[in-house]
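Quick check before the chapter quiz. The format below is the same one you will see on the exam, so make sure you can read both the input and the output lines.
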Amino acid sequence: MRGMAGMAGMAGMLLCASVCLGQADVEVEPAASAAPAEVADPVVRSAENNPLAEEMNERVRASIDRGFTYLQSQQNTDGSFGRGRYGKHVGITALCALSFMADGNLPGRGRYGDEVTAALEFVLDHATDAGLLAAETSHGPMYGHGFATLFLGEIYGMNPQDKRVREALVKAVDIIIGTQNEEGGWRYNPLPYDADISVTICQIMALRSARNAGIKVPKQTIVRAVQYVRECQNADGGFRYMKQTGGSAWPRTAAGVASLFYAGIYEDDSIDKGLQYLLRNARPNRVATGQAHYYYGHYYAVQAMYLAGGEYWSEWWPAVREELTSKQASNGGWLDHYAGGAYSTAMSLIVLQMPKRYLPIFQK
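Here is the expected output.
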């Protein structure tokens, strides 16, 4: 397994900011039914400093290398990723770049540094004066905006001298803060009129990354977002799509649990119930690949289990690792018929590289 040592010089500052952020910076009151969320050292409970034996094996490394080769071939000449109905998409471009960064690549540094540089230029070129990050195929632009803001936050945290990135990041964060609706969430468009849990988690992750990098985010914005997420949880522990009545589903449950962790909450009844729902309904090898939001769900589920640590991680990781490597196509990619191969391959590569522990957003 490749540890943090190889990246210490590059990411040390941001990792420190991420760990120090925790509850002290964005503490939110626990739910009424939960035990007090006072955790002396939440990092101890996560998988961050508690790696499993043989987390990575030769099969996974080979799978990742093949995935990178495929993904590299999918980058367009303008630096973007995504084709067809999702061509030139800032969100997919950001996720692809993050998958390369999960291996330690940065703009101009590493085997895929040029690909990250080109992706960054594409995202910056599509930052509007108002701050919205959106390109030609921005179906529901706040999805793409959230992932692109997360990407800029990770880039800026590792290179705080980049004034162009900072300017775009600050404006992007302001858009998120300014479009939070009265329920505490966000929806497809940058207007504070509606909300759903899927778009909301994208914004929470983006805000966490920005705060880690030193960008100011009002505490109240996070408090209201957490309240919205909690109000979307059903009695069975799963999360519904919107605050109104609706059924639970495992992909948005994974997103809901992850969002609470990223808000700085590490012990909470809502998290425990959500994790148990995932174990009952979404164990790897029990969910069909063709199911809607399959890759999206595993992207968030592996983060939730990693941050929960302990038996959650030790049970989940080997299973999802084997499932994804077995579903890789002969061309090296993973195929999602809805959003395309670049999207699903990027999601799969981010999942498979969790044990590398390179992306600061995944650190407590």
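If your answer matched, good. DSSP finds 13 helices and no strands in the chain.
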